[in-house]
């Protein structure tokens, strides 16, 4: 932050106004009161504070963006309210569409200035994305307001930690994500998928869809992915596909339910910061604290059960949690945080992708028919499938299956918008990015860009 920005920051202005008020009251109180027709010292203080903040508003709105901002040479809307913040508030169209409009207006720009006040830019080209996430990932971190909210749901796991902590976790978890291990999970995932199709048929015949032929698919995709991540992440059978209710699933459903008040709470926390929102007399604060605390409390018995099984030599399952426990490098709170990350990020992201894939197939029945035919040819009804079956070798080469999944992730990325903040002076594809600048990345926009 430059000298001018520091001088006109809110803390500096408040301090200056306080000092000015004291001096005016002490030396010029009577004269000031007569000129402005003020009867109390409080009125003098109010006038001085108002004058300081009004001057600052003019400085930030008119002078700073054109003369002092390190991003002043960049093209972009430079709105009073950042485009990134507007994208979180506007609800009549997908948030990524606002950024699509921008790149159509500035087609040749790789980076755009989004705000007149914040240090906030949008990257629009793949080579900048590569620098941001691959070549220089530790030059940028999640903004504090975002991480401050998400860590209550995800814990300080692989997704949330930064720097050396992230390097350590990545090194210690990578063995669980080798192709050999993923390949060994195919049979389990196939089995869970078969169970889900049976549950869907039953729901259509005798359950929620018996009268209308309509069911809430998102509920079932959340169940099947939680069952899969339970086995893959911690070697535990949740069996939510067969249970009417499950405490863990219920917590996630309440946390992620897109109710208007919950969305307002999330947006307020992202824009203003969770510590500020917690000061408000809002019942959502109590509910959020209850759900996140309960989620953490549910995980601890699972963790202890897993540790006991390992100590008693009753656990030979190769999963992420077992690997972390056996490494001996993690405390119980750290293991709990990893578990929170695997459960939340591991099942909700996949559930979202599966739901969107089903949506797209329902909108394009011709591809649904081609995909069904491709899979039936590769895996006939009379084919015996067991743990020795090379499902990876059968499914990986299928063009329609892979094409449809890739297209789903392109059109509906699990994380359509994310941000990173420069923790040191850096650059993206040669463009200087000063420390403190927030870099906005819209995968929705980038994946749908005309070029």
Automatic annotation (TrEMBL):
Q: Where does the secretion signal sit in this chain?
A: none
Name recorded for this polypeptide: Cytochrome P450
Entry GO MF terms: heme binding; iron ion binding; monooxygenase activity; oxidoreductase activity, acting on paired donors, with incorporation or reduction of molecular oxygen
Highest rank taxon of the organism? Eukaryota
Looking up InterPro entries in the UniProt record yields: Cyt_P450, Cyt_P450_E_grp-I, Cyt_P450_sf, Cytochrome_P450_monoxygenase
TM region positions:
40-63
| Family per record | Belongs to the cytochrome P450 family.
Coiled coil residues, start to end: none
Q: Which UniProt keywords apply?
A: Heme, Iron, Membrane, Metal-binding, Transmembrane, Transmembrane helix
Source organism (scientific name): Xylaria grammica
